[in-house]
Write a structure and sequence with these properties.
By secondary structure, the protein is an alpha+beta fold. It folds into 2 domains: 2-41; 46-152, Immunoglobulins (Immunoglobulin-like), CATH 2.60.40.10. The chain contains 2 helices and 9 strands. Strands 2, 4, 5, 6, 8 and 9 form a 6-stranded mixed β-sheet that branches. It is globular, with a radius of gyration of 24 Å.
């Protein structure tokens, strides 16, 4: 390397340094684009309960761990392609695609981007539905919903 540097004049050496620097800057930008493309290319999109499992018997407060594949979690706000947040529906099925999910005692919003929560539930059997929705709470429909049944003792 030193041999090569001795034979290069200052202008050529500076040009070479600038070219190397600029090419390294461009490689970061293209890696950001590849991340966006990889998100778009994921074919499997789903929500699921990491915990509890379907049919579990649990004590209150019930720890809920929410899973997601194929999309990204973001707090409620402007709608962005490929992003959304979780909702838990208690003793309800999924909301139709495009429907705005209302807030109620049995329709819980996690618009801060939460992925785990604890619910105070009285003893009994419950159907919990995890529903994913966009930044303005518009449901992604049955395709982005998952239901389990639990028993709270």
């Amino acid at each position: 390397m030193m041999f090569l540097i001795r034979f290069l004049n200052k202008n050529t050496l500076y040009s070479l340094i600038v070219i190397i620097f600029l090419s390294s800057c461009n490689s970061k930008q293209s890696s950001d684009n590849s991340t966006e493309k990889s998100i778009e290319n994921i074919e499997t999109k789903r929500v699921f309960f990491k915990w509890p499992r379907d049919g579990a018997t649990v004590a209150s407060p019930v720890y809920i761990d929410m899973g997601l594949e194929g999309m990204l979690i973001e707090p409620a706000g402007p709608v962005k392609e490929g992003y959304g947040h979780h909702h838990i529906l208690i003793n309800q099925t999924h909301w139709p695609k495009g429907s705005v999910i209302p807030t109620s005692d049995s329709t819980l919003h996690y618009g801060k981007g939460q992925t785990d929560v604890s619910l105070d539930l009285v003893p009994g059997e419950y159907q919990l539905t995890l529903q994913f929705a966009d930044g303005v709470h518009s449901s992604f429909g049955k395709e982005m919903a998952n239901s389990i049944t639990i028993i709270v003792e």
